[in-house]
Specification:
Bound molecules: zinc ion
Radius of gyration: 22 Å
Structural class: mainly alpha
Low-confidence stretches: none
Number of domains: 2
Strand content: 5-15%
Shape: elongated
Number of strands: 4
Strand order of the largest sheet: 1-4
Mean pLDDT: 81
Order of helices and strands: HHHEHHHEEHEHHHHH
Helix content: 40-55%
Largest sheet: 2 strands, antiparallel
């Protein structure tokens, strides 16, 4: 097993990168989304979000977290689902929105002859007078071998789909609220025994002692954050983060979700 200090850092990094993934799923059309799309989308998707391994930078790390976790037996993709309504943001083949697998995994032969691998549900399915209609775009005839069986399976899944007004909604299955949180992912990683057990801290000899000491206090939640001080009845002028001022200053915020720490983690992941 990897050194627990490193595993701890990796879990924080994975959780942070996954948060970007969640945002990508939910912020289609925003400027940053368009930039990522224009740099990273390719005709042959390697991942469930557009990632070009030839492009250096933090986004490549984000694309790699899923295969990296898969090799540890943790299937990240299964934690992202979409509740499809108008079908305008949900990838038809790549997202998990019907059954427990993306259609590209269930029907790999059909996916190989799809012309537009990044098509959304609304590109392929639409309603007329309450009846679901289909609009395919194949490179070859899907009713020929070896595609026919898969095509029949796909048709039988599609006939139960209902397209209706309203935006598609991403759901994070790692928390009952359906909203992604770094905390919930860290909890899942811990459950999957990918993390070190609670309150057992192995010192990493690579680090200066004072850095290890801070990490140890982080693990135990023993840092004098505004939240911790207030809990001990120490008078503080404000509970807000002293760096960004946007959220309550908790250990998780300071080391994970604060804009400043996110920038630091991004630099580390580069
Ligand atoms: Zn902050």
């Amino acid at each position: 097993m990897a050194d627990s200090g490193l595993v701890f850092l990796r879990d924080i990094n994975v959780s942070l990168l996954t948060k970007r993934w969640w945002r990508f799923k939910n912020e289609k059309g925003k400027l940053w989304w368009n930039v990522i799309w224009s740099f990273h989308h390719s005709a042959k998707p390697l991942c469930y979000i557009p990632t070009k391994l030839s492009c250096a930078g933090p986004w490549r790390q984000i694309g790699k977290i899923s295969p990296d976790l898969n090799s540890d037996g943790f299937v990240l993709n299964k934690l992202f689902r979409t509740n499809v309504k108008n079908g305008e943001t949900n990838w038809f083949w790549l997202d998990m929105w019907v059954n427990d697998y993306p259609l590209c995994n269930r029907f790999p032969n059909l996916f190989s002859i799809e012309k537009s691998k990044w098509c959304v549900v609304a590109d392929r399915l639409y309603m007329i007078d309450g009846v679901i209609c289909r609009r395919w775009d194949w490179q070859r005839d899907p009713t020929s071998l070896p595609y026919f069986e898969e095509f029949r399976g796909l048709l039988s899944i599609c006939k139960h789909v209902i397209i209706r007004p309203g935006k598609d909604k991403s759901i994070w299955c790692g928390d009952h609220s359906g909203e992604f949180s770094v905390r919930s992912l860290k909890g899942l990683l811990l459950e999957m025994s990918l993390s070190r057990p609670d309150n057992v801290f192995e010192w990493n000899n690579w680090l200066p002692k004072k850095v290890g000491f801070v990490a140890w206090r982080v693990v135990l939640n023993r840092l004098p954050t505004m939240e911790a001080l207030a809990k001990r009845n120490i008078l503080v002028s404000s509970l807000d983060c002293s760096i960004c001022g946007k959220r309550m200053e908790t250990v998780d915020h300071v080391f994970i979700s604060c804009d400043f720490s996110q920038a630091v983690w991004c630099l580390i992941s580069q």
